[in-house]
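Late entry, evening session. Most of the bench is empty. Finally got around to the prediction I had been postponing all week. Sequence below, unchanged from the version circulated by S.P.
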Amino acid sequence: MVLSSCGTGAAVADARTACRSVHRALALQARSEVPGISAAQHDALQASAMSELLKATPSAAAATSLDGSWNPLMTTINEAERVPIHQLVASLTRLCQVADSSSPYL
């Protein structure tokens, strides 16, 4: 039982690490949607958001390897390569709220 709780703690730590990149990516995404920015600024911010989001992949994968309940976080991050980030904002926000909560297994 002690060993399983260590793995769970490590998985939460990895999920939280992934979410730090997710939070940065979502902030960049939000900046890209501000009215009045140029197309070049929009594209640069979108590219930066994608790059930042993909930085979360290794930590999300590590969390999933330790505890499969983090698979939705990893899967949603990976979906950004197929789905525009703005369509993933709600899911990523909720998943990271869970990871960042004091009881991440709601």
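Two things to note before I forget:
The chain is about 75% helix and 0% strand.
The chain has one domain: 2-100.
Will write this up properly tomorrow.
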